[in-house]
Write a structure and sequence with these properties.
The protein has 289 residues and is α/β, with parallel strands linked by helices. It folds into two domains: 3-133, Rossmann fold (3-Layer(aba) Sandwich), CATH 3.40.50; 153-288, Rossmann fold (3-Layer(aba) Sandwich). The protein has ten helices and ten strands.
Length: 289
């Protein structure tokens, strides 16, 4: 199996969030021409006997397959039910996946939390991009719906250095798979970041021009590789994470990098990625870089 054949993994646990993640994963697998693998990780618990646990897993996976048939009848997804801790299993499976898609919270998630611990841990440690799908509909109507159908923008947050290559590659490929999609490339800058990069320190207009040039340099060559994608570059004076969270409300997907240096937060996410994932109003892709 080549890297172009590696599946999109959809993690399901029976929650509304995971069903919405399954819907998103099925549509993305079709767009990218990739197989879909539906995974339900059977929890390690003594409260349920093995036979009951396996029966419930089989029922959930069968229901998930039927759900995908309503979205993409020709997809023919495979299923898997490993016995493990959810995040550990998904991180392991991510080594042979193109993409892992999870809901923002599972059955055990507290409503007061914007994102569950398993979703956050998977995004922090997986070796492939992880998409976290936020709750976007009412639990009263759980039929498959494309809540992002009206959104065409793909938003990518990039830094003005080589660490953004993986983010750009994923963002351009995602936009290219969606006819008519526009790619907004966002780069947040401040006078302090200008100073750290050796740019102007006291002249805001010069610093803005320096940021714009840096963004052009980082993104150079990508439009030639993806001529079908409309690109908008947005150097923003201020918080990149705030800009990305705002943009996520009307984006089909917001893409951020899991940059080195976030380990101090304990979960391997940079501050920008952490804030975006936690507060985004739409699906967020976390790309290892």
């Amino acid at each position: 199996m080549t890297t172009h054949d590696l599946p999109v993994i959809a993690a399901v646990d029976g929650s509304t969030h995971s069903r919405q993640a399954l819907d998103w994963a099925a549509r993305e697998a079709v767009r990218r021409g990739l197989p879909l693998l539906i995974v339900h990780v059977m929890p390690l618990t003594r409260n349920v006997d093995e036979e009951t646990r396996q029966r419930e897993a089989d029922e959930l996976l069968a229901a998930s397959v039927r759900r995908t048939e309503l979205i993409a009848p020709a997809l023919r997804p495979a299923t898997l039910a490993p016995l493990d801790f959810p995040a550990a299993a998904l991180v392991s499976l991510a080594r042979d996946a193109s993409l892992v898609v999870v809901g923002s919270r599972g059955l055990g998630g507290f409503r007061s939390l914007m994102i569950g611990s398993n979703s956050l841990a998977t995004a922090s440690m997986a070796s492939c991009p992880v998409v976290i799908v936020q709750d976007s509909g009412s639990e009263e109507d759980d039929r498959p719906q494309d809540h992002g159908a009206a959104c065409t923008d793909i938003v990518a947050g990039v830094a003005a250095d080589e660490s953004s290559e993986a983010v750009l590659e994923f963002a351009f490929a995602t936009a290219a798979a969606r006819p008519g999609a526009r790619l907004r490339i966002v780069h947040g800058w401040t006078m302090f970041s200008s100073m750290l990069s050796g740019g102007p320190v006291f002249d805001r207009e010069s610093a803005a021009g320096s940021a714009e040039r840096s963004l052009s340099e980082v993104t150079a060559g990508w439009e030639e590789r993806y001529p079908q994608v409309e690109v908008v570059r947005e150097p923003v004076n201020g918080s990149a994470s705030r800009t990305l969270v705002t943009a996520s409300a009307t984006a089909a997907l917001t893409v951020v990098g899991r940059r080195k240096g976030g380990e101090s937060l304990g979960l391997g996410l940079s501050p920008v990625a952490q804030t975006t994932v936690t507060h985004a109003l739409g699906p967020v892709a976390v790309v290892p870089c």
